[in-house]
Every structure is written in structure tokens, then in C-alpha cells.
Amino acid sequence: MKIWQYGDNINTDMLFPGKYTYTCNTPEEIKPHLLEDLDPLFAKNVKKGDLIFAGRNFGCGSSREQPVLGIKAVGIAAVVAESFARIFYRSSINQGLLLIECPEAVRAYQQGDNVCLDVEKGTIMIGSTTFSFPKLPKEILAIRDSDGLLPYTRKKIRRKKKQ
Amino acid sequence: MGMTFAEKILAKYGGEKKVVPGQILTIKPDHLLMHDNAAPIISKIQPELKEYGIFSSTLPVIVLDHVIPAAAEKNAVQHKQIREFVKKYRIKHFFDVGCGICHQIIIEKGLALPGTVLLGSDSHTCSYGAIGAFSSGIDRTEAAALLLTGETWLKVPQSIKITLNGRLQHMVTAKDVILSIIGDISASGADYCSVEFHGNVNQFSIEERFTIANMGVEMGAKNAVFPVDDVTVNYLKLIKILKSKYTAINPDDNATYDRELTYDLTMFEPVIAVPHSVDKVKPIKEVEGIEIQQCLLGTCTNGRLSDFQIAAKILKGKTVHPNVRLLILPASRKIYLDALNEGLIKTFIEAGGTVLPPGCGPCLGAHQGVLAPGERCLSTSNRNFKGRMGCNEAEIYLASPATVAMSAIYGKITDPRKEARK
């Protein structure tokens, strides 16, 4: 598992350039341009189960959802950041991508540290220190656990129509 | 204890008497905004649309503005898909290519009213706080779900109270105000929060409030709102919306804020946000003299009549520097026409400017003024992110229409308070 480490205010143009927003929509179209202007090696070398570590305000800027779709599609297990921009945060819930807001863990991480994530327990271990992160409220967890908002909405509509 | 604007309006829409920050509510927005991205949005839910139809034909507002007229076949196909969708589901509020930028259309057509809630699949949906609405950006997936169900969840945000005292000096504008505030509190300074503007805000027109609210998201805000006052009421009267058509919601005097900030507008001066972050804000004297190759005057941030009036006053009888391409981007057809009738467009063209169709133009880097490596653009838009105008080796500087107009004449960043030469 590799940790991809980035700084503060990583915006949506860095994660997925605006010039592709209306021509690339599917995960396959998105993947080659993911983080193109931030880290050209990312799209080439990222592997399933890798983690992204970042500073404050990750995902700020546009409401485009290709960054979230792409990060999920390449198999990033979670983005751990000091904080997230709200549209990105919401979008990740909608796509079923795990975000962990844990500034202490981000600050504690040093290159080469072993990292172990336990989603069930809500903990992340950096080296020998364990940090816990808060769980999402249950109304929102239900969306993420349905693997995103659309599957959740489909279930909800079907249930309503049956009544 | 009183409630903030966000608490009051979300309590109303969530069917609660009292709410607190952090509380999650299910709400039904008055409108859902989509633009060119309506095509990928509806393609996500084709089977559901066929089976269940849409929640309401009056909920969505669709404006084609992002890549107009279509730059490539792919865009043209998406626009066509949207037109077919609009016809099939009898979408009431549809604005085709050339009408204007979605946020401007929402305000101009009276689709955002005081005390209403709007969500939109565009981050600058926060603009309608200018008129006293609660409005916020969401992603495409959530817009798709809203088309089907008409409802979503919202968390009641913490609120920040920003009090603006004093008066702006000559050639210092609303754009300088919001850039200075973002520079002060940083690009994450209002993350997740509702920002309320208080104090001497009566001096700001709806157009100026629009510029300020539009950039709320650049400091991370969920929404950014102005009080509903006589300026709001008079603007709505102008677009033929009577007071009886809306119920304003203003915050209680004894509301509780997470943070309170006070600024003296008299102390503000022209500023520039330098590459590659909106919060890297400097007084103009620190960056004066930097050469520029493109000037963009317009967008949803500063493409309104009053912006063009300021710029035309500076550019009247002058010529744009030979090294500079000056692009004019009106925020709507109505503004374009008004500017034409006032002779402003003539001034821009005579000075050497190029007028683009009302839409998003080069702001997001898809077309109509993409930059080359090593070039610099001075823009009245809202983002200077690396790569934003289509090239990751170009630089974008953000400023007011006055600064952009004056700088276009000199070919370098220039203080708008300077006397313009012939």
C-alpha cells in the first residue's frame, strides 16, 4: 500500500482539470487525467488499496464530481486529510468514497510509517500511534453504505412506490 | 436565544421550530440548478426516469452556459440531449445557448427570491445570497437524485458574522472587498459555514452583493448571504416581482455565531489574488508592473452592467496595449443588450476588445481564450487555480473590473487609481 501525500488546498482543477469536465464522464475516461496537473505519476502508478494523505481544505473549488469518481475508481481506500471542502465531502458520501478527517493522523505521518486503517472501529494507526476518527451520522452513513446516493435513492423510491 | 439566517431558513424548510448547528434535516428546495452538466446528470438515471418520471417540471432550472456555442461535437451532442430532455419532461425553466450564465439568469429571471432555498450542481450556486436566498452547490449525483425525489439532506451549518463598516474609497470595488476578506481568512476560512454580511451593506447594489456572495465558496462557505433591505426590494420591483411574492428571512439580533469579524471598508484598497490560490491576496502596489497577455472582463463574478460601466469609463477613447488580448464576457443577453444600448460595447470594441457570447467562456479553460505556457491572464473571474484556463504552465491573477480595464491599457498590472494615458 502506498501513501500519496499532498499539501493544503488541493483544488478540483488539480484533481481533474476543468478543460475535460464536459468531455470525460466515465471512470475510464477520467482515470488518465486524474491529478494530472498535481502529480503526473499518480494516474500511472496508483494501485487499489492506496491511501491519499493531505492537508487542509482538500477538494476545494468546483462541484465537478470526476475527482471523486476517479479516486474511487482507481481503488483509493480512503482520503485522510486535515479538512475537506464541503462539496467534495458531500460528493464522496454520494459516491461511497471513504473520507477521514483527522488532522492529528496527517500531522503524525512520516514517510515510511506503517499505516493501518480500521473502518469498523473508526481508527487509523500511524506507526505505533492509533488515532480515532468520528463516524458519520447514521442518516448519512446509510447513503455511503448503500454504495452511494443513487443506489440509496433507487431503494427509497421503490419502497415508496410499494406503499 | 435567536437564530442565524441559516438556522432560521433551514428550520422552516425542515419543518422544525428550532434547530442547532450540526442537526441534519430533510429539505425540499424551491429550485435545482443544472447547466451543460444536465446531460451527464440525466444519463445517470435513465431507467428511473423512464419508470418514475421526474419529481416536478418546475423544480429544475437548466441553463446552457459552460461550453457555448458548442466547441466540439461531444458538447453539441450533450446540448441536444438536454434539449430533448427538456421537451420530453416539459421542463418549465430552460435557457438555451446565448441567454447567459446560469447564476445571472437565476437572479435576473426572479427564480431566486428572498427566503427561498436553491441547490445547484455548480459551486457558485452560493451567489443567490445576494438576494437573501439560501443557496449552495452540490454534485451531479445529488442533482440526479433530486430530479427524482425533490428532496435531500442538509446539515445546519455554523454561522460567521462579517460586519462591514465605513465606505469604500474611489476605485475600490466589491471585488476588492471579497478578495481582501478571503485573503484574510484563507481559502478554508469559512469551510462548512454560513457567512452573513452585516453592517453598512446598504451601499452595495444587488450587482455588487452578487460579486461578493459569488465568491463565498472560495473561502469554503456553504452559503453567503446579505440581509433583505430596500436595495433588495427595489431590485425585485425592477424585475417586476412584488413584495407579496416572497417572505424575507433575516437573522435574529441575538443569534449565536461561531465567529464574528469586522472590517472597515474605508481602509480597503485595490488588491490582486496572485497564482495559484484565491487567498494569495496582495495590495496592488506589490504586484504593479507584472506584464500580462490576456485580460478577461466579465463572468458570473463581474460581468454585469455596473462592472462594464466602470471598465468603459476607463477604456473610453483609449487603446488596449498591443501585447494584450482583452476579452469581454457579459453575464447575460440582457446585460449584453443594455451595454450595447449604453454604448459600452462600442467603447470596448473601439479600444480593441473582443466580445464573447454570454456564457462561461475561458473561465474554466474549455475554449474561447485558453492560455499558452508562460502567459499571464488578469481576470475578473473567481478562480486562479493552476490549469484553470486550460494550461497548467500559465498564470491567472484575479482583480476588479477597474483594475483589469486600466491594466489592459498598459499591458501590465496597473493601479486603477492612476490617471489613464491616451
In order across it, which strands form the biggest sheet of chain B? 4-3-2-5-6
Domain count of chain B: the total is 2
CATH 4th-level superfamily of the largest domain in chain B: Aconitase, domain 3
- The CATH architecture of chain A comes to Alpha-Beta Barrel
The radius of gyration over CA of chain A amounts to 16 Å
* Rough outline of chain B: globular
Low-pLDDT windows of residues of chain A:
none
State the CATH class of chain A.
Answer: Alpha Beta
CATH top level label of the largest domain in chain B: Alpha Beta
Quaternary class: heterodimer
| Average of the residue pLDDT scores of chain B | 97
Main features:
heterodimer; A: 163 residues; alpha/beta; Aconitase, domain 4; 4-stranded parallel sheet; 3-stranded antiparallel sheet; 8 helices; 7 strands; B: 422 residues; Aconitase, domain 3; 2 domains; 5-stranded parallel sheet; 18 strands; 18% strand; globular
Written account of the structure:
The complex is a heterodimer of chains A (163) and B (422). Chain A has 163 residues and is α/β, with parallel strands linked by helices. Chain A has a single domain, classed as Aconitase, domain 4 (Alpha-Beta Barrel), CATH 3.20.19. Chain A has helices spanning 12-15, 27-30, 40-45, 66-73, 86-95, 103-108, 138-145, 149-162; strands at residues 3-5, 51-54, 78-81, 99-101, 115-118, 123-126, 129-132. In chain A, the strands form two sheets. Chain A has a four-stranded parallel sheet. In chain A, helix 5 crosses helix 7. The N and C termini of chain A lie far apart (47 Å). The mean pLDDT of chain A is 94. With 422 residues, chain B is an alpha/beta fold. Chain B has two domains: 5-263, Aconitase, domain 3 (2-Layer Sandwich), CATH 3.30.499.10; 271-410, Aconitase, domain 3. Chain B has helices at 5-14, 38-43, 46-52, 73-88, 102-108, 140-149, 174-185, 206-214, 230-238, 299-302, 305-315, 333-341, 344-351, 401-410; strands at 24-27, 31-34, 60-63, 93-95, 117-120, 134-137, 152-155, 159-165, 194-199, 223-225, 259-264, 271-273, 281-283, 294-298, 325-329, 354-355, 376-379, 395-398. In chain B, helix 7 packs parallel to helix 8 and helix 11 runs parallel beside helix 14. The longest helix of chain B has 16 residues, at 73-88. Classes of the chains: A alpha/beta (163), B alpha/beta (422). Chains A and B meet through helix 5 and helix 8 of A and helix 4 and helix 6 of B.
